[in-house]
Amino acid sequence: MAFDWREFLQLAKALRSFSVPSFSAEAAKRSAVSRAYYAAFCHTRNYAEKHLGFQRTRSGKDHGFLRKHLGQQGPYWKQIEDELRDLHEWRKRCDYDDAISNNLDIMVANAISTAEDIIGKMKE
């Protein structure tokens, strides 16, 4: 049975307020942004393969390829492309930047909300 990528969104929601002595709240929040992105990206990728003719390369280039493919599908999908781009940028900041200058709590809330919105737009 295929993994349900929406579970990463549930994990992101749990991580946003999770903290234990072995890691910081910042680590949990950064991970929440990352999981929210991958929930939306993988769910959308699979939907696009099934319904929109997207063909993945199974490489890191698929992130950009998927957004480009969506943008070519019309205005409805262009909005999803833009939301995925925002999520991708937030995820990269959380995964690679040593310091996050903006309010991390706001980024987490926006990432989760955006991922929910994207996933909600995929009608099976």
Offer a few descriptive terms:
124 residues, mainly alpha, 5 helices, 69% helix
Q: How would you explain this protein's 3D organization?
A:
There is one protein chain. The chain is mainly α. Helix content is 69%, strand content 0%. It has five helices and no strands. The protein has helices spanning 6-15, 25-51, 62-71, 75-96, 104-120. The relative contact order is 0.18. The model has no long low-confidence stretch (mean pLDDT 94).
Spell the H/E element sequence: HHHHH
* Model regions low in confidence, pLDDT < 50 over at least 5 residues: none
**Terminal-residue CA separation:** 17 Å
Strand content: under 5%
Structural class: mainly alpha
Work out the number of β strands: 0
Number of helices: 5
Could you outline the blueprint of secondary structure elements for this entry?
Layout: H1 6-15, H2 25-51, H3 62-71, H4 75-96, H5 104-120
Task: Provide a brief overview of the structure.
The protein has helices at 6-15, 25-51, 62-71, 75-96, 104-120.
